[in-house]
Sequence to fold (249 residues):
Amino acid sequence: MDTDPRFRALLPAPSAQVDLAALYAYPAALDRPWVRCNMVSSADGGAWGPSGRTAELSSPADRRVMGVLRGLCDVVLAGAATARIEGYRPVRPREVWGRLREGRPDTPSVAVVTRTLDVHPDLLAGAPGDAPTLVFTTADAPEGRVRAAKDAGAEVVVAGDRSVEPAAAVRALAERGLYRVLCEGGPHLLAEFTAAGLVDEVCLTTSPHLLGPAASRIVAGDAPSHTADLRLEHLLESEGTLFSRYTRA
Ligand SMILES: NC(=O)c1ccc[n+]([C@@H]2O[C@H](COP(=O)([O-])OP(=O)(O)OC[C@H]3O[C@@H](n4cnc5c(N)ncnc54)[C@H](OP(=O)(O)O)[C@@H]3O)[C@@H](O)[C@H]2O)c1
Fold:
């Protein structure tokens, strides 16, 4: 057990012994991809701060949880706007992951969903051979950019005609044995995955800030609204920030 004294558990039972890797472990013996989403929200439901990024909502404790979630997953899935705005690059290995990645590549792959393939060249070219960047795109994606992405070493997967279909993306992850999926948003991509009924788990950081009405919610866009019940698995706290983990009921 590797406990982190900065956190305390509030639910399902109060405890000062918080082992993040154990609490966030994916279900054992998965036979299909398990899609976990990790998002941060302000207390009034905002998904990004005045800078247009999530930095203002994050904290050392949030980054710690995010780091553990990345260490546990096989693939980090993100929409291209998040990749562009948050400056996504291939995930760097971390010493603290220790045994978390035993028997797996040192880092998870990054999978980016995009029609334009307008993502930073380093995200396409800089990934290790055993964890290449995956680009989920459409049949009508710009040919030159598709070629450039492949030449840079990324794996380009056509997962829809004019729009990437979430189910096709998840099937492609399954074909590659990438079962432990960590979807890091953004709100538009998350809305599409929730509308498709493909989200198994939501990890939500609630940060002690108010943002007002300018920021989006953690789901946004035109995907159809729907109702899905969730079950609260745990609630943690660190310096006023709450960390809840929900699974599909
Ligand atoms: N609060 C949080 O936890 C959190 C998490 C992540 C991001 N964010 C914030 O959210 C913002 C970005 O999120 P966002 O919701 O605007 O965008 P997003 O979901 O990250 O990305 C949208 C983009 O992804 C691509 N895309 C999405 N669905 C697609 C589909 N079905 N087929 C093909 N391509 C598809 C398109 O890329 P192309 O334009 O390349 O075609 C689209 O423009 C940033 O401000 C970021 O800081 C917040």
Observations:
- The CA atoms of residues 111 and 134 lie 4 Å apart.
- Residues 34-39+57-248 form a domain with the Dihydrofolate Reductase, subunit A fold (CATH 3.40.430.10).
- Residues 39-40, 47-48, 52-54, 78-82, 85-86, 113-116, 118, 138, 163-164, 184-189, 192, 218, 220 surround NAP (CB under 6 Å).
- The chain has one domain: 34-39+57-248.
